[in-house]
Amino acid sequence: MKAKIKKYLPEIIGSASCLTLGMLSGLSVKPSDSLWYASLAKPFFNPPGWIFGPVWTILYLMMGWVVGMLMRDKIKNKELILMFIIQFIFNLMWSPIFFYFQNIGLAFFDICLLWISISIFIFASRNQQKIVILMSPYFLWVSFALVLNLSISLMN
């Protein structure tokens, strides 16, 4: 077991880091924000609230695994690491913008930049199949979230 942990230590650290930062971003949401969100008109395809925690947990763990893979060769992956950091900043900004500041329009702008930055990252990683595979569910979820954010923006 120790050998496995040692072998995958960068990926484990990356996953723990992304999950922790993602949780901290989510903690920016106040209880009153839930009341505000509940009062918004939402499209028929809005998922139940309980789904977001498990989905984001899995996605942050997968993103962290990608970071760990990239960190194994920091010099070779310098540009990819920078691209990952940029998209991750957009990711972490979305919850505070949407929930804490209750700015649906700015959150939509942020998620558009997030979607673009993930697309660029995946394209730039196209020669590293494992990274593309690990980032694809995240890309699909953010694509769905972008449509959901737009719908909520238009309905309110």
Secondary structure topology:
Blueprint: H1 2-7, H2 9-26, H3 31-39, H4 52-71, H5 78-100, H6 104-124, H7 129-155
Helix pairs in contact: 2-4, 2-5, 4-7, 5-6, 6-7
What does this structure look like?
With 156 residues, this protein is mostly helical. The protein has a single domain (2-155), classed as Ferritin, CATH 1.20.1260. Helix content is 79%, strand content 0%. It has helices at residues 2-7, 9-26, 31-39, 52-71, 78-100, 104-124, 129-155. The longest helix is centred in the last third of the chain and has 27 residues, at 129-155. It is globular and about 50 Å long. It starts with a helix and ends with a helix. The model has no long low-confidence stretch (mean pLDDT 95).
